[in-house]
Write a structure and sequence with these properties.
The protein is mainly alpha-helical and about 80 residues long. The chain is about 65% helix and about 0% strand. Helix 1 packs antiparallel against helix 4 and helix 2 packs antiparallel against helix 3 (about 40-45).
Amino acid sequence: MFNLYPALDDLCGHEDLNPEKPTKLLNNYGFTNRLPKDEKIINALNFKLNILQRKPILERVKGKITAYIEGLGGTV
């Protein structure tokens, strides 16, 4: 699959995200101007989180999503 956004490919690769779901999350962000809910991010992961992994991984992914959006000239 060819993606016009290499930074999004990096995010998917480093965080083991399903490549189609972050695109949907970012499109929804465009309409709502809010970060995705935790459950939506968890559903985009290709693996199951245990309770101890949940908070640090969610914070890291949200930070990367925020950085990605700001890199496109948007705000959070």
